[in-house]
Predict the structure.
Amino acid sequence: MSELQDARVRGPRAYLTFIFIGLIAGLLSGLFGVGGGTVIVPLLVLMLHFDQRLAAGTSLAAIVPTASIGVISYAVHGSVAWIPAIILAAGAVIGAQIGTRLLPRISQSALRWGFVGFLVIVIISLFLVIPSRDAVFELGWINGAALALVGVGTGVLAGLIGVGGGVIVVPVLMLAFGTSDLEAKGTSLLMMIPTALSGTIGNLRHRNVDLLAALIIGVSACTMTALGAWLATLIDPFAGNMLFAAYLAFIAVQMTIKALRMRGR
């Protein structure tokens, strides 16, 4: 990291900003079962002028403690499918390696437009399919293999455009596998831990992580993750779907703006 960038991301204002970002990311992580990277990365770039890669690496490192607290919070309510999460994580770790290798060969603009299309379909589906809180994930050979494919696909997307985890896994578990909304969120958070650890190790080698920022954001997020998970249990499934749809719409708008900017270059 350059001295200029160090000056931008240090000092009282920067530390307060790290805490602010962590609090928001932690609340959303617990509420929706996502890592919070879709909030952490843009805020680090916009508010503290982080380089995009450094912001992504820092966000991934901060997700590890955040997701860990989230898993504990959902596990207390019995809302974590442990073996499916491990299958998803194994697929995602492999997929992330594939995605990073494909990165130089695929149009980022086309990828973003494709992902926006996927989000639009998911948002519409969330209005049509309301998950049952009584649904239980029953693992078999067929849906186990399907889970592995979902994990690989999630990892590939994460490697290609830096978006994955709960944004993909939560709606897929609810809509395609019929799990409850709470179990989908808890399982998603567990899947993220080994995936984020694997990515963080690689980012550390390339010096794409601000460890102090990741620590402050991660610890701050942990103070809010349990609250978000508790709120998720209080909100009925339909209202939860609507809130998640609004969150996905926010991400779709972000992706659309990025795709439009890339087209103009």
